[in-house]
Specification:
297 residues; mainly alpha; Rhomboid-like fold; two-stranded antiparallel ribbon; 2 strands; 71% helix
Amino acid sequence: MSSSLLLRIIYINIAVFVVLKLLQIFSFFIGGKEATLTVMNWVGVPSHLSLFIRRPWTILTYMFSHYGVFDILFNMLWLYWLGRVFLEAFNPKQLVGLYLMGGLVGAAMFVTGCNLQPVLFASGPLMGASAAVLAVVLGISVYRPDYKIGLLFFGAISLKWVAIATVVIYLVSFDGVNVGGYVAHVGGMLTGLCFGLSIKRGHDITSWINRCIDAVVALFQKSSYNRGSKGEARSRQSKYKYKKSTSTSNSSGTQSQSAPGVDEERLDAILDKLKRSGYGALSDDEKEFLFNASRKR
């Protein structure tokens, strides 16, 4: 059950990747290579602040979108392996919170760098779940540094060495080309580092994200509940009117005579209950009594 939310994140990434690829193929035959780039621009975080303000949704969509097969393959495998370890220590909501927070911090550092130093940070739109995934990887590695996992060709290795190796690989991979993406990855790693250190002190830095998510979910649930309640109330009212008309009135609109063999006091009590609480509140015995009474009338 706890891993279901982790799998949903992975499935969403895969589904978005497939849809984007299909849109790219379709747009290529319609408008050529430029059209395929336009598709990706609508889900990636723009480097220019003015464009980002017009596309604010990209701060969320980018962390579920990928350019290439190997990008999504590496990120999802890394997320699955370390995400399962994460869920042994934390709940699924914290996993989602850290994933989103890592992505948000990475995007914020990307946009800030690109606009403070546009020449140095010259870059296309930011895409990929690397910052979000790195937050989860570093978060659990800092919290459980001595937890051992099995790696191909390396055997059992502690998470602290996994974290150190991850940081070193990203540092030495800097080539001065994709500076914006590099800074976004660093943002994700810093988020994971802060989460691991703060959670040891009893403070969850992702709690505000979970409160926001809970508030949005509660808002939609309340709206759905209100619509359902109104419909149920109208249904109960119509049922009551129908039952009342068939049990208390004859064709001329006058009060019907008492039917032989019907307990009038009990019938009145059931009709009163029907009026207050609706037909669904009646017991099976009361429903049967009401049905038989209506037949006798």
